[in-house]
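Request from the bench team (R.T.):
"We need a structural guess for the complex before ordering more adenosine-5'-triphosphate. Sequence and SMILES attached. Just send the tokens back."

Command: build protein-adenosine-5'-triphosphate structure.
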Amino acid sequence: MSFLELKSLTKNFGGLCAVDGFSLDIAKGSVNALVGPNGCGKSTLFNLITGTIRPDSGEVLFAGVNITGRPPHEIARLGIGRKFQVPAIFDELTVRENLIVASRKQNDRTAQADILAQIHLEDQADTLAGELAHGQKQWLEIGLLLAQAPALILLDEPTAGMTAPETRATAELIHRINRDRGLTVLVIEHDMGFIEHLACPVHVMSKGKILKSGNFSEIRNDADVKALYFGTAEETVDA
Ligand SMILES: Nc1ncnc2c1ncn2[C@@H]1O[C@H](COP(=O)(O)OP(=O)(O)OP(=O)(O)O)[C@@H](O)[C@H]1O
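Reply to R.T.: structure attached below.
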């Protein structure tokens, strides 16, 4: 059954069509990746899902409920969490305090301990968030999302600026929270190595709509996708 249903979403900014009749069905409990060149409309699509901006036309259905045009706080309360590229954490609080502040149930220490284990920051619980390594800050922000008990999370370039081991660990983290919490995940990414580790359905966006959907190797070897990135079908997508 479709958990998130995007139906012919369209958003224009003046004369620019950023999202152009975009449709996609995301199944409950699945992980999906959205890739595409700079400016193809990925972040605008996330803004349409989370209510930051309203579509000119089209609909967003979440768990069967039409949430199109609802305000962001209402959509968040319904269970959609979003992580932006730059981590929004409290640097001057410890990792544990960050989680407590973000938690729906602030006294539920068991839930917070579970999250600490899942984001691999058990040993840093009493470290100031500002002192964490870059990758750990990104994981803490995913932890802050988990503390709000969402059913769907949208991650915008979660591995930006990460080392290769951090990137691999992030793919494992996403698998873990998907498996252990039954969370549905939609990820925007540029890093094809990360997408390969995720081993999930990949949707390629171009000029506001889906160009191709498939598994990693189908996308990597697709002539239209190669042409989109390189203007030629001769090379391999590994940017
Ligand atoms: N608020 C806005 N006002 C005007 N134009 C906008 C606005 N937001 C986005 N755009 C334009 O819409 C197009 C799509 O932008 P968007 O940020 O969604 O792309 P993207 O695929 O997320 O890009 P990137 O990978 O670089 O983050 C771009 O041409 C962008 O300049």
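Two things stood out. The beta strands are 2-13, 16-27, 31-35, 57-62, 65-66, 80-83, 152-156, 184-188, 202-206, 209-214. The chain has a mean pLDDT of 92.
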